[in-house]
Amino acid sequence: MKGFDKKLVLSTLSAAVVAAGSQVAFAVPDQPTEWEKCAGIAKAGKNDCGALDGKHQCATMAKQTNSDQEWVYVPKGTCEKITGGTVAKVVPAKKS
C-alpha cells in the first residue's frame, strides 16, 4: 500500500468492526425470563394454544385474524407495544 500507513488503516478498520459489532450486540434483547399471552394480534391459523373463551384447545385453530380471544406468546413488556395487543396472562420462561 504505497502512500498509506498500514498500521493506521488496520487500526481504523479494526475500530470500525468493533463499533459495528457493538451496535448489533445491543440491538438484540436478552433471552426473556417471562412471556405474555398477547391477545388480539394472532393471525388466523397462527395462534398459540387454546382460545381464551375455551372454543378450542389447540394451536393453529384461530379462524379470524386479530380475534380478542386468540393469542400468541411474546416476551413480557412487548404486547402493549403492539397495536391491538392485550396482555391476557404473564408466565415464566422455561429453563433450558
Task: Please provide a written account of the structure.
The chain starts with 5 loop residues before the first helix and ends with a strand. It has a domain at 34-92. It has 96 residues and is of the alpha+beta class. A three-stranded antiparallel β-sheet has the order 2-1-3, with no helix packed on it. The protein has one helix at 6-27; strands at 34-39, 71-75, 86-92.
The CA-CA distance between the termini, in Å, is: 51 Å
Helix content: 10-25%
**Biggest sheet, strands in spatial order?**
2-1-3
Average pLDDT across residues? 83
Q: Label the overall shape.
A: elongated
What is the N-to-C order of secondary-structure elements (H for helix, E for strand)?
HEEE
| Rg calc | 22 Å
Strand residue content: 15-25%
Contiguous runs where pLDDT drops below 50 for at least 5 residues: none
Q: How many strand elements?
A: 3
Largest sheet: 3 strands, antiparallel
**Helices and strands: which structural class?**
alpha+beta
- Total DSSP helices: 1
Put the structure in a nutshell.
Helices cover 23% and strands 19% of the residues.
Summary keywords:
single chain; 96 residues; alpha+beta; three-stranded antiparallel beta sheet; 1 helix; 3 strands; 23% helix; elongated
Layout of helices and strands, plus pairs?
Elements: H1 6-27, E1 34-39, E2 71-75, E3 86-92
Antiparallel strand pairs: 1-2, 1-3
